[in-house]
Amino acid sequence: MQxxxxxxxxxxxxxxxxxxxxxxxxxxxxxxxxPILIFPEGTCINNTSVMMFxxxxxxxxxxxxxxxxKYDPRFGDAFWNSTKYSVMTYAFNVITSWAIVCxxxxxxxxxKEEEEDAVHFANRVKAVIAARGGMSVLPWDGGLKRKKxxxxxKEEQQKKYCQIA
Length: 165
Description:
The protein is α+β, with helices and mostly antiparallel strands. It has helices spanning 14-29, 87-95, 118-133, 151-164, and strands spanning 49-50, 67-72, 101-106, 136-137. It comes from Chunga burmeisteri. Belongs to the 1-acyl-sn-glycerol-3-phosphate acyltransferase family. This is GPAT3 acyltransferase.
C-alpha cells in the first residue's frame, strides 16, 4: 500500500470522511493521475446481489467507470463467509481450489445528471452493474451481515410487503 496512493480512513470519524472527500476531489482534478478504484459497497457479499453503495464516492464529481465483477464458483468459491469460516480456513480453501474464475465487465462511463443527488446517482450506477452481472439490487447496507437490523427498517420493509398483496 505504501507504493501506491491508498487513502485510508476510519468511516466513523467525520473528520476522516471530509479529508477523504478532499483528497479524492484533488486527485480527480489532476488529469495526470490515474483513475481511483473504489468499492462503494464497502464490503463483499455472496456474489448474488449488489448491496447499497456508500454515497461519498458519488458526491465528489468526476466520471464513474462502472465495473461489474462476478465470481464463477464452479472451480472454487472466492466468497468468504466470515460467520462460518476462519480466515485460515478461507485461505486454505482458496489456495487449494482448482481455480478462482471471475467475470469482469467494463461498462460505459457515467456522470451525475444535473438534477441528480449522490444517492440517486449511486443507485443508477448500482442498477447498471447489477443488470450486467445478473445480480439482484438490494436497498440495504452490506454491513447488515454483521449488525442487528434496526426496528424502523424492519417496519418499513413490512409495510412495503403488505402493499404488494
